[in-house]
UniProtKB/TrEMBL annotation:
GO molecular function: DNA-binding transcription factor activity; transcription cis-regulatory region binding
Pfam families in the cross-refs: TetR_N
Domain of life, source organism: Bacteria
Name of this chain's protein: TetR/AcrR family transcriptional regulator
PROSITE patterns the record matches: HTH_TETR_2 (PS50977)
Feature: DNA-binding region: 44-63
Keywords: DNA-binding
Length: 213
């Protein structure tokens, strides 16, 4: 009996479709690198490609150069910050105190959880970074000062001064919390306590007054 060997072709492998990276993916990866390293120098094409599991060709499909990527990353952060501020302004419309706390939480609370702003402040010597920070911070200060002026009847210059003081205080607290947390009291880890203290300071009242006042 003659056996006939039949050639069996291998089963075709199913190719898993891979999502094509977008410019937004690259911009977000650039912000992630900035957060991790705290410096614009962390935004480099080859390390980002490795982070994304992509090639340099993917990068150049979306961006002409590294500067264009940095511009996109800054624009993305600014757009996100503006959206968060808009939502905070709309929150608690019938309660100035609630709206003020929400504004403070948006303006400064993120700095305690997200190092992006602190990293950008460290790079403010770069003109493009400084311009972005100026626009974002100016919008935040104007929103908080407007609340103090219109809802709480503070004079315009006084409202602006208090808003700036609160903002600087919270950014400084966030910087200490990341750099040398041991110098801060344990209460500084509680966001609501921090927000309460900042709100009472804005009103010129003693920190630690009744919450909701």
């Amino acid at each position: 009996m003659v056996l006939t060997l039949r050639y069996l072709s291998p089963m075709p492998q199913r190719r898993v479709a891979r999502r094509r990276l977008t410019a937004a993916d690259w911009a977000e990866a650039a912000l992630d690198a900035l957060r991790d390293e705290g410096s614009l120098s962390a935004i480099a094409i080859e390390p980002l490609a490795a982070r994304l599991g992509a090639t340099k060709g993917s990068f150049y499909w979306h961006f002409a150069n590294r500067d264009a990527l940095i511009d996109a990353a800054l624009a993305g952060w600014e757009a996100r910050s503006t959206e968060e501020l808009t939502e905070a302004v709309a929150a608690g419309e019938d309660d100035p105190a609630a709206r003020g706390r929400e504004l403070l939480r948006t303006m400064t609370g993120l700095a305690h959880r997200d190092p992006t702003e602190l990293a950008l402040l460290a790079e403010a010597g770069q003109p493009r970074v400084a311009a972005t920070l100026e626009r974002v911070i100016t919008r935040r200060l104007e929103a908080l000062a407007a609340l103090l002026e219109t809802e709480l009847a503070l004079p315009r210059e006084e409202a602006r001064s208090r808003a700036l003081h609160a903002y600087c205080d919270q950014l400084g607290r966030a910087q200490l919390a990341r750099a040398i947390p041991a110098v801060l009291p344990e209460a500084a880890d509680d966001e609501e306590t921090v927000i309460d203290s900042a709100w009472h300071s804005l009103l010129g009242a003693a920190a630690g007054g009744q919450r909701g006042a």
